[in-house]
Predict the 3D structure of the following.
Amino acid sequence: MNTRHSYTDDSGCYSVGYICTSRNITRKTLFYYDRIGLLKPTVRSGSQQFKGYDSHAAERLDRILLCRSAGLSISEIRKLLDDRQCDRKSVMNRALERLIREREEKDREIAVLKEMISLE
């Protein structure tokens, strides 16, 4: 790994560009997570508010992205990551039930559309 392009100067933190490229996400997504408080940069410096992310923040981002790929909402992710008292299995089961309901609704929509097509 070429650390010159992977880390910020002197901070030992990953740059926004590196984080985005290595996780295949946009800067907009990363900055959104910052804005809503889901993933704050480890360091901010300079007049342009340079942002850096340490290995703990990168690991948290990986957990966020895994949860997003599983269809969890931001509020569900926040609960899983930040609420030490939550019943994690219960949160995930409720998310699964929600996704199943959404899939059933999409299946109904598809069936109606297929019927409409067959009538043309």
In short: The domain at 3-86 is CATH 1.10.1660.10 (Multidrug-efflux Transporter Regulator; Chain: A; Domain 2).
